[in-house]
Structures are given as structure tokens and as C-alpha cells.
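Table S2 (continued). Query chain:
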Amino acid sequence: MSAQTSGPFRCFGDGDPLYSAYHDEEWGRPVHGDRELYERISLEAFQSGLSWITVLRRRDTFRTAFAGFDPEVVAAYGEDDVARLLADPGIIRNRLKVEATIANARTLLALAERGRSLSDLVWSSAPRPRPEAPRSPGDVPALTAESSALSKALKAEGFRFVGPTTAYATMQACGIVNDHLAQCPARNEIEADRR
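Corresponding output:
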């Protein structure tokens, strides 16, 4: 994440309308629901090692390729589907990440069969709010004790590609933590919505 200074202040996303809209309307806003969190975890896994804008520009194609991240549909994907996905230039064609996304759909369904919720599991990792908002990108951690615990809990359930850094990126994106910088208007909007 890098701070931008042109126009209204944003923590990131200036210079690209898609990225600006993501910053202003989505990042850091609470996301609940197993399907919604499954999509976010999947996209964060695909982002691993890449910039988020790379994934964001392909998000609609990802949604088409993975049936809107419907876990019941994706869990039924077989080798023909893996081959189809690996041939799709509109997504990030990484076999391990594709297979993890399919395996994670199956894991999500198994979790639900046991009467558990991915949403509850992810949100149970929410830390106490920090006493001070980050003032610069350098004040924002890449991982925390809570993201390490979430990663461990997800892996214990069978989820893949959910290391502590990916878990923390999910926590940021889904509003479990508010890492908008102190001077960012989005931070105050999110905090006001939480009251």
C-alpha cells in the first residue's frame, strides 16, 4: 500500500478509477457471509506475490470462471475444469492457486456440514481496535498475531493458500481491521458506520 497525494486523499488507488472505487467503496468495509468471504479469500490467494490491481482488473473474469464463487459449483470442479481454468487468459493461471480455490470450496462445504460458518471463523479473529490509526503505510503491518492465528485456524480446517500475510490482507479487505490511514476520509466513514 502506498500513500497518494493527488486529489482527495486516499491511502491508495489514485490514478486508476477502478482502484479508486475499490478503495472508496469496498476496502476495509465489513464483509460477512460464507460465499462472500470465500470469494475474498480466493482472490487474496491469487494476489499472493502480485499487486492487488492485477487481481482487481481480472475480478469479473474470475467471477465468471469460478461460477460467481458459488462453493457448491466450484467444489464439483474436476480435472477438465482445472484444464479450462489454466487455459483462461483472463485469470491468473497458477495451478496451485486454482486447485486451492477448488479445494477451499470443498472445505467450506465440509465446514458447513459440521454446522460451522466461515464468516464466524474469520470474524472470530478480529482484534481490538488499535489505540491509534496508522499515519503512514509504514505503520501498517503485513501480518499480526491475529492473522497468524486465523491462518492456523483456517489451515486446521483444511483451507489452502491462507498464510498469515494472506490472512491479514483478507482481514484488511473485509473490514475486520481498519487500516485506512488516519487522514483518509474512508477511515472515518467506516468508523462512523461501526458506531
